Amino acid sequence: MSELLSKERITAPPDYNRWRVAVASIAIHLCIGSVYAWSIFNPALTKIRGVVAPSGDDWTLGQVVWIFTVAIVFLGLAAALAGKWLEEVGPRKVGVLAACCWGGGYIIGSLGIYTHQLWLIYFGYGVIGGCGLGLGYVSPVSTLIRWFPDRRGMASGLAIMGFGGGAIIGAPIKAKLLEIFYRQPDFLGSVSQVDVVTSNGRRFADVQGDKIEVVIWGAQGVKDISTAGFEGVYVVNSGATGAAETFAVLGLMYLAVMLAAAFSYRIPAADWQPPTSAPVLHKKNNDMISSEDVLMTDALRTPQFYQLWLMLCLNVTAGIGVLGVAKTMITEIFGSSLPSVVDATFAATYVVMIGVFNMAGRFFWATTSDFIGRKTTYWCFFLIGIVLYVSIPITARQMTVNPSIIFLVYFYAATMIIFSMYGGAFATIPAYLADVFGTKHVGAIHGRLLTAWATAGVLGPLAITSLRQSSVSEAIRNLASSVDPAKFESKFGAPISQLELLVEQKTVTIANLLKIAPLDTVDPTSTIYNSTMYLMAGLLVIALISNALMRPVSPRYHSNWST
Q1: Which CATH class is domain 2-269+292-551?
Q2: Per-residue DSSP letter, 8
Q3: In 3D, which of 57, 26, 73, 53 has the Cα closest to residue 324?
Q4: Domain locations in the chain?
Q5: Going by C-beta distance under 8 Å and a sequence separation of 6 or more, which residues neighbour residue 203?
Q6: Are 82 and 296 in contact (CB under 8 A)?
Q7: pTM of the model
Q8: How far apart are CA 223 and CA 220, in angstroms?
């Protein structure tokens, strides 16, 4: 097995078709890129016990989103360590290990869901799966840049294109599997038929003398595509969201596909030359293209490395937090105002379209950078991104005052452009590195640069969940202050003085407070992401300045400087 995976064994013959490596690379990235469809799992994972609605013991959205965050952190850490190792052992061995980690992480995660052990999901999907993400991410990048030295931008775009498109395939597969394995919990009857009491913030019903925890499902508040049934009272722990079974099936599927792709990897011989007669380099920013190579250790001493690191980190921070809650975000902003349009199917399709634009943007922007230059391409990312992020809160406020399909169309278009540039930045950064530091050590340097992704994987979800929760808490307090205390106690079975406890146990939400609020009360849900969008725009301003200050690397860092 060691010989089968060795670097010497995978050196390609002179007449080898380099596009076969591109196909294998895209296949692996399509598998690991399904991480971008993580938000499909959010509704199911936050209702493991309650199934139709969150129960007191269910995980919160903040806890679930952090699983995605841990996976991205370990992606960056694994990529940083794997870059140099990849140069030593070749892409096949790295790809096989990536398959085992990514597939195995899903399987361990399924066990954590089944036993309701959150730490096990963090360890399986987050740590083990995250390592698989990092290994699978770096294995094709430097390989394809070596196969396509005449098209650096296109090569890095091809290598990373599949990662952005993983959600296109992953989202509908995940949604369908959740639907297949979904089991409706036991239905006790309508609210008027069942005597429900509140104790320590939770709801209980008396069933044949036994006190059983229940959740109350309101049909208008459900956004999960799997949920079907009657509005009323359901028994906790009597159904299944299908998340555990879905994780297990996906783990086995990804393992098989990634192993087949990894064994298809080949590397060019030392004397191999591309079939094209002349390389195509971009016509602008030619002063940024170096014909010299810089060692990884020396690259870490240059200001250019940290400028690129900052640019990638801030750009990813601005996009990755939104990616983790995409399905939840669009339903919260537009679901109450346009319920007939923004339903569960629409939200799932939105996640798929994010994957489409993420993937298309990777190839489009990376290829475009071959002609307009990497630096100019990043100017586009940051300038356009700032304008779009600032405009989204304006749209949300207008949606609250005057609901219209036009605002939904604008939001949809704006976020799709943002995600195309988010993916484009990832796909263009290896070519930017190759321009600045040369191609010889770009794999190792790229791996180290991906620690920016790990950092952003923490900052992005932390920012969006913290700011969202702060906005939600403020909205609930404002709504509660406008509600008649008698109506509040009648609705929730507890006085308004226990508001914090009721919110903590998921008994009180914005949606059910609105049902007893005065008729002229405006639903604040559509504006709970406004502060997040302003923060993201601010981050891109800093990234814009870093890109503007980019200059060629000093000759003293070139690997042949001493000679």
Answers
A1: mainly alpha
A2: G
A3: 73
A4: 2-269+292-551
A5: 196, 197, 213, 214, 215, 216, 493, 507
A6: no
A7: 0.72
A8: 8
